[in-house]
Amino acid sequence: MSPYARRRLVNTTVLTLSFAATAIGLIWLAAILWTLLQNGITAIDFDFFTQDTPGSGGDGGGLRNAIFGSLIMTALGTVVGAPIGILAGTFLAEFGRGNPLAPAVRFINDILLSAPSIIVGVFVYEAMVLRMGHYSAWAGSVALAIIVIPVVIRTTENMLNLVPGSLREAAYALGTPKWQVIVFITYRAAMQGMLTGVLLAVARVAGETAPLLFTVVNNQFWQGVAMDAQMANLPVVIFQFAMSPDHNWQRLAWGGALIITFAILILNISARLLANLRGFSK
Amino acid sequence: MVDAVIGKSGIGTRQNSLDVVFRAATFFFAILVLVILFGIVVALIDGALPALKQFGWAFIVDSSWDPVKQIFGAFPAIYGTLITSFIAMLIGIPLAFGIAIFITELCPPWLKRPIGTLIELLAAIPSIIYGIWGLFVFAPMLQTYVQPFLSDTLGEVPLIGFLFQGPPLGVGMLTAGIILSIMVLPFITSVMRDVFETVPTVLKESAYGIGATTFEVVWNIVLPYTRTGVIGGIMLGLGRALGETMAVTFVIGNAHQFMTSLLAPGTTISATLANEFSEADTPMYLSVMFALGLILSVITLLVLAAAKFMLIRMERQGGT
After folding, report:
1. Looking at CA atoms only, how far is residue B58 from chain A in angstroms?
2. What residue spans of A163-246 are helical by DSSP H?
3. What interface predicted TM-score (ipTM) does this complex get?
4. DSSP assignment of B244-312, as one string?
5. Rounded Cα gap, residues A54 and A239, in angstroms
C-alpha cells in the first residue's frame, strides 16, 4: 500500500470511528429516554398525583407526598442558594478586580461545582442533623442550597462579564452610585443569562439524591410543610422503590423517574433557549 | 435652600453607605464559598478522627468489613472507586475525543449545535436515572450477551484472564465502569470541544495547505496545541467519576470484598456511604463513614484542583 493510500485509510477509519462515537452517545440518550417512557407511562394516572406512597405489598397509591416534598425542598434550596450565588458572583465580576481573594474564590467555587454531592450530604449531616438530633427537610434544603450556590456563582459571573463596560460607564457619568449601576443597569442587561443560571441550578438539584439520603431521608406519609421532620421526596422514593422487589413499588419508581427526568430536561432546554434568546437580541 | 443642600448631601452619604453595604454583602457571600469548603473539610476530619485513631494507616489497605465486630477496612471501597473510574476513563476518553472531532471537524455547521446540546443533555439526566436504567436494562443485557462472551474469550487469555473470570451476574465493577463512562462523556466532550475551537484557523489551514488529512491535522496540530486543556477536561471527568454515587450504588452489587475479576460485584466509597450511612448505628461505624467521606474528598479535590489548574493554564495560553 502506498503511503498516500495508507494515510487516506487511517483518516477514513478515524473519522468513521468519530462518527460512531457520536452515534453511541446519541443512541444511549435515546435508549434511556425510551426505557423511561416505556416503563413509566403506564404508572402515570390520576392516582399517581393524588395518592400518597403506598406501603409494601399494597396496590395502587401514588407519589403525591414525594412530588410535593421535592418541589418544596428544591424551591427552598433555590430561594436560599440563588441570591447568595448571585451576590457572590457579583463580587467576582464587579468588585473582584485586584482583590487577591477573588481568584481563590473562583478556584474553590469551580472545585465545589464538580465536588461529589454525597460529600455535601455528609457535611450537612455533621453540621445540622447531628446537632438537631433528627433528620429534617430543613437539612435537606440546606444541602440542596449548597449545591445551587456554585452553579449560580459561575453563571452570574460569566453573564455579568458579558455586559459591555460602556453601559456601566454611561451610568457612572450621570453620577449613579455603584450599587445602583449594578442593580439597575448591569443586572438588567444580564437578566436573561442570570435566570438561565438559576434554571440550570434548579435542574441540577431537582434530581439530586445523594445529599438527601441522610439529611431528610424519606417519609411514607403526607406531612404538608412540616419542615422539621423527615419529608418524602422523589429521588429517595425512586431509589428505595426501585431497589425493592415489590412490583407495585417498582412501577411507581418508573413513573417517578419518568416525570423527574422530563421535568429536568424541559427546565434544561428552556434555560438554553432563554440563553439563545439573549444571543439574538444582542 | 439650606435644607435642600443638606438634603442633597444626605442623599449622597446615604448612597455612599449603601454602596459600602452592597459591596460588603457581595464580599460576605463570596467568602462564604471559602467557608463552605473549609467547613466541609473540618467536619469530615472531625468526624473521621475516632476511626483514623483506631485503625491508623492500615484503614486504607485493610479489606475486612464487619460492623458487628466493629472492624473496618476501606481497601475494597477505595479499590472499587479507582477501578470503576479507570474503566470509565478507558471507555469515556476515546468516545469523547471522537465526538469532539466529529463536532468540530466533520459535522455540518447547522448540526453542530443540536448534537452538542444532545450530548450535553446526557449530563442533565439525574444520576439515579442512570442507576435505575443500568440495573433494569443494561445489567441484564450485559449478563446475557456480553459477560459470558468475555469470560469465554478474554477470561481464557493468560495474564489478563483473571480480570474476566467468574459467573455473569450483570451487576459488578465492569457494569458500573461502563455506566460511568457515559455519565462523564458530556463533561469531557464539552471541554475538548471548547479547547479544539480555540486553535487558530491559520494553524489548521497551513497544515491542510501542505496536504495533511483531517486526522493528521487533529493529531499533529489541534491535539498538541490544546494538550493542557484536553488533560484538564479528562481530569474533570475523572473527578466526576470518582464521586458519582447513585448510578454506581444501583449497579455495583455492593459487596465489601476484594475481587480481582471485573465481573464480580464490589463497592465504591460513595456507594458504601449511600447504602450504610443511615445504618451506621455505633459511633465507630459512623466515624468510619466520615473517614470514607474524607478519603473520597481528598482524592476528588486533588483531581479537580489539578483539572482546574490545567484549564486555567490553557486559558492563559489561548489568550496570548
Report:
1. 23
2. 165-173, 178-180, 187-206, 234-243
3. 0.91
4. --HHHHHHS----S--S-TTS----HHHHHHHHGGG--SHHHHHHHHHHHHHHHHHHHHHHHHHHHHHH
5. 15
Q: pLDDT tens track of chain B, all 320 residues?
A: 444 444 455 666 777 888 899 999 999 999 999 999 999 999 999 999 999 999 988 888 888 888 888 889 899 999 999 999 999 999 999 999 999 999 998 889 999 989 999 999 999 999 999 999 999 999 999 988 888 888 888 887 877 877 887 788 888 999 999 999 999 999 999 999 999 999 999 999 999 999 999 999 999 999 999 999 999 999 999 999 999 999 999 999 888 888 888 888 999 999 999 999 888 888 999 999 999 999 999 999 999 999 998 888 888 876 44
Query: Which residues pair with residue B71 across a beta bridge?
Result: B66
Which residues of chain A make contact with B290, given a CB cutoff of 8 A?
Answer: 122, 126
Alpha-carbon gap, residue B290 to B280, rounded angstroms: 11
Cα dihedral B18, B23, B27, B30 sign: positive
- Cα distance between residue B254 and residue B270, in whole Å: 11
Q: For residue B36, which residues of chain A lie inside 8 Å, CB to CB?
A: 112, 146, 149
Q: Do B117 and A210 touch (CB under 8 A)?
A: no
Strands B65-66 and B71-72: antiparallel
CA atoms within 13 A on the CB side of A102: 13
Chain B positions in Cβ-Cβ contact with residue A180 (cut-off 8 Å): 15
Residue carrying the nine cell digits 448571585: A86
- Give pTM, 2 decimals: 0.91
Nearest CA of chain A to the CA of B258: how many Å?
23
Residue B211: left (phi > 0), alpha (psi -120 to 50), or beta?
left
Cβ contact (<8 Å) for B128 and A207?
yes
Cα A233 from chain centroid (whole Å): 15
Cell of residue B24, nine digits: 460588603
Check CB contact under 8 Å for A127 and B43.
yes
Residue of B265, B268, B266, B267 lying closest to B169 (CA atoms): B265
Name the residue facing B26 among A87, A107, A126 (closest C-beta).
A87
Which H or E run contains B65?
strand B65-66
User: What dihedral do alpha carbons B125, B128, B132, B133 form, nearest 10°?
Assistant: 20
Whether residues B133 and A32 touch (CB distance < 8 A) is answered with yes
The dihedral formed by the CA atoms of B123, B126, B128 and B129, expressed in degrees to the nearest 10: -80
Residues of A in contact with B316 (CB under 8 A): none
Beta carbons within 8 Å of B98's beta carbon, 6+ residues apart: A17, A18, A19, A20, A21, A22
Contact partners, residue B102, CB within 8 Å, separation at least 6: A18, A19, A21, A22, B115
Residues of B in contact with A88 (CB under 8 A): 26, 29-30, 32-33
B77-to-A58, A239, B48, B86 alpha-carbon distances in Å = 36, 21, 16, 14
Q: How far apart are CA A272 and CA A259, in angstroms?
A: 20
Residue with cell 452538542: B116
CB contact under 8 A, B15 and A177: yes
For chain A, first and last CA: distance in Å?
Answer: 54
